[in-house]
Design goal:
By secondary structure, the protein is mainly beta. It has one helix at about 90-100, and strands at about 10, 15-20, 30-35, 40-45, 70-80, 80-85, 105-110. The chain has two domains: about 1-65, no CATH class; about 70-110, no CATH class.
Length: about 120
Amino acid sequence: MTHEYKPGPATLRGGYGARIYETDGAEPMVIHGAYLVGDVWHSMTWTKAGAFMDGPRAASCLDLVPPRRQVWVALALDGDELQTWHFDTEAHADTWAGAFGRRRIDVFSSSYVETEA
């Protein structure tokens, strides 16, 4: 699964802080940025999958951590059945939770990292 990386703050698997400057570089190293070790920034490029090297290999401490996806979770009762769904906006979650005679229990935000199935 390829994640959608965006310019801004990031983290590497090794725990280092990082910055993504651009994501439109030449293949295969399309992500341009830097990572911080101590108080020194080091220039870096990554593949569109966030890997610091192209090709098959084990994960590295210099790989980007996949971005977390922010979602809104709706909990509702439909008769005696507890139902839960996630949505991109609070308004959609809230609408779903109260629709079709459901009894709204809660709507809250959460985040997760999408992984391959």
